Amino acid sequence: MESSPLLTVNRLSKTYSTAKGAPVQALQDVSFHIRKGECLGLVGESGSGKSTLSRLLLSLERPDSGEMYVHGVPLNGLTGKALRETRKQVQVVFQDPHAALNQRLPIWRSVLEPLDNYPDVTPPFLADVRPNRRETAAKLLEMVGLLPEHLDRYPHELSGGQKQRVAIARGISLRPDLLICDEPTSCLDVSLQAQMLRLLKRLQRQLGLSYLFISHDIVSIRMMSDRILVMQEGRIVDQFPSDQILSEERHLYTKQLTAAVR
Ligand SMILES: Nc1ncnc2c1ncn2[C@@H]1O[C@H](COP(=O)(O)OP(=O)(O)OP(=O)(O)O)[C@@H](O)[C@H]1O
């Protein structure tokens, strides 16, 4: 029997009003689910609504209508303690690792920020080191392929790839149920992108994480995902298991996105 969904999104819509011109309907009636341990890919060109969806799931913005549930618990309108609890369960790795890190903090302090916000949380994989903050930071860095020598460096002393590894270490540190990977490789050199995807895949298996993997790059999406959603102008126009990406049944827009790999 299939497990019940970790995340359920039901008819989500969001419109932005703009100073000039017509309002922008960023999301229209978007529905999907993610099961535990699954990587769901979300692909679409710039402006299709991918980041809007991730902001709604992170409770950074509110939808105009529709519902989101994590383990059956509604996310809409949460405040206070309930919002805090959900934020712990849904973490994110953003596109730009430089913007995600506080420039004035050494890496070991940055990597501990989520755990410092939740002092009562000890994910099982950190149980042996949690009482010691530097050991906890060192273990997190090790898990993403960084070294103890990186603990005391500042963001400007790391490469883009190393900074993204720090951002990933933060993203996994609370062992969230869902990690949203919002274009996590698009700021990196092509040579580093595959390395970063392999790291994310390994961590997913190791910690039993579920991912919403957002990208405009069909090759990364195909490599990472069990199932794929295709978004165009705020709507989901196609969804399928990733091994059916090249099927003749695909939506015309999916065929356009995959033309380069056909
Ligand atoms: N705060 C905002 N105010 C007005 N319009 C917005 C706002 N945020 C997003 N939009 C518009 O909503 C639509 C969807 O934007 P969104 O950033 O979600 O797309 P995206 O698929 O993530 O694009 P990209 O890949 O370029 O990040 C776009 O037309 C965008 O211009």
Automatic annotation (TrEMBL):
Domain ABC transporter per the UniProt entry, residue ranges: 7-258
Pfam families, sorted: ABC_tran
Gene Ontology molecular function terms on file: ATP binding
Top-level lineage group: Bacteria
Database matches in SUPFAM superfamilies: P-loop containing nucleoside triphosphate hydrolases (SSF52540)
Keywords, alphabetical: ATP-binding, Nucleotide-binding, Transport
Family note: Belongs to the ABC transporter superfamily.
PANTHER family on file: D,D-DIPEPTIDE TRANSPORT ATP-BINDING PROTEIN DDPF-RELATED (PTHR43776:SF7), TRANSPORT ATP-BINDING PROTEIN (PTHR43776)
Protein name stated in the entry: Dipeptide/oligopeptide/nickel ABC transporter ATP-binding protein
Organism: Tumebacillus lacus
